[in-house]
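[Q] Does anyone have a clean structure-token version of this?
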Amino acid sequence: MTTESKTSNTKAAMPYDSVLATGLNNAATQIHTAARNKGFWDSERETGTLLMLCVSELAEALEADRKDRYADLQSYEECEKADDILEGDREAYMVSSFQSLIKDTFEDELADTVIRILDLCGARGIDLEKHINLKLKYNLTRERMHGKSY
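[A] Here you go.
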């Protein structure tokens, strides 16, 4: 059999056959470890409460969007490059810069949401990468807009 005929009989690879979501499980482990070290897991936490905390972060993102609060990354990155800050004052300067340019913005609240989700996955031992990749692959088999008409 020629190489050409072998290739024509092989099913074409679908997107997501290779792993798309990578690094999330490692991030979940690191985020959950940090949360444990900060005392957030000194006692077991109820799943429903943790899920509502994720929802509340999304609500805060909605509020930030309504108030037109978006991160000013360019200014923040300029603060990071500032050379005229004394070494001892650098941390306080960066905290202040974060609070005025990033904190409570749409992007910051989305980040909080993902952090809470990853913390929950880390706590429950969920292989989020596997589940995301499985879901994306399944979604490829579904009809346009998954059969919904919006």
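[Q] Thanks! Anything notable?
[A] Residues 47-66 form the longest helix (20 residues).
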